[in-house]
């Protein structure tokens, strides 16, 4: 039993929770995933099962990612998302951005740019996870990474909620993007919901909810051949 499986990660599960469940189901220890999703995020996770598959996992990590996100304007969070301490920002009615302003600001973020990883992230610096340091109240200097936003599509806007679809390069933090959009608008913002809908050409519609998998059916959802992976 070796190959790749597309998982729809549920809310409040870590990416490692998914791997741990698949290890129990398959009795295979060599399992890895491409592209960590935070517990508050849901959506597509590519999981490699077996030694041969895990050797190829970097092929998926480097693919473009697509996310659907709800950005809450007019407030900030110390984690950049809805799991942190929320601070509401007093906004006058005249300060509420209109749809034209929103559209212009979103357009500014399309293209290559430098983005600083958030403290509440799984990124390692000097061998330590940033979120482990953040939980201990430690903040360290982080080097910005070059990322690229290929497209930002405005789906819906009704103050204070802004819903967009973002297609971006590996290494992009949507929470940081949400905060940066809030700063550019002058109203503050945090990421209130996040769902990954695509990794490269793989779509969330192809994914299987992890709680629907068991010892009897998992073999039916493992992609093995090159044609299945194209």
Protein architecture, described:
Strand 10 (145-158) and strand 11 form a beta hairpin. Strands 1, 2, 3, 4, 7, 10, 11, 12, 13 and 14 form a ten-stranded mixed sheet that branches. A two-stranded antiparallel sheet has the order 5-6. A two-stranded antiparallel sheet has the order 8-9. The two termini are 20 Å apart. The protein is globular, with a radius of gyration of 19 Å. It has 230 residues and is α+β, with helices and mostly antiparallel strands. The protein has two domains: 3-63 and 201-229, Pseudouridine synthase; 65-199, 2-Layer Sandwich (Pseudouridine synthase), CATH 3.30.2350. Helices cover 23% and strands 35% of the residues.
The CATH architecture of the largest domain can be given as: 2-Layer Sandwich
- How many angstroms separate the termini? 20 Å
Biggest beta-sheet profile? 10 strands, mixed
CATH topology grouping of the largest domain: Pseudouridine synthase
Number of domains: 2
Q: Secondary-structure element order, as H and E?
A: EHEEHHEEEHEEEHEEHEEEH
Task: Return the average pLDDT rounded to an integer.
Answer: 90
Q: Rg to the nearest angstrom?
A: 19 Å
């Amino acid at each position: 039993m070796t190959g790749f499986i597309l998982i729809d990660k549920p809310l409040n599960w870590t990416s490692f929770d998914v791997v741990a469940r698949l290890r129990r189901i398959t009795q295979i220890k060599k399992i890895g995933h491409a592209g960590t999703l935070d517990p508050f995020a849901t959506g597509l996770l590519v999981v490699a099962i077996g030694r041969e598959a895990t050797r190829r996992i970097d092929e998926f990590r480097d693919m473009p990612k697509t996310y659907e996100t709800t950005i809450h304007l007019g407030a900030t969070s110390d984690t950049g998302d809805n799991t942190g301490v929320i601070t509401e920002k007093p906004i006058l009615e005249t300060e509420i951005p209109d749809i034209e302003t929103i559209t212009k600001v979103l357009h500014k973020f399309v293209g290559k740019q430098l983005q600083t990883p958030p403290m509440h992230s799984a990124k390692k610096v000097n061998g330590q996870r940033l979120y482990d340091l953040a939980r201990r109240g430690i903040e360290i200097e982080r080097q910005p990474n070059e990322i690229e936003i290929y497209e930002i599509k405005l789906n819906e806007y009704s103050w204070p909620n802004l819903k967009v679809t973002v297609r971006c390069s590996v290494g992009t933090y949507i929470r940081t993007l949400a905060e940066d959009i809030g700063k550019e608008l002058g109203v503050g913002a945090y990421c209130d919901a996040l769902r990954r809908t695509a990794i490269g050409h793989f779509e969330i519609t192809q994914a299987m909810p992890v709680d629907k998998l068991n010892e009897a059916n998992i073999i039916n959802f493992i992609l093995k051949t090159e044609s299945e992976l194209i």
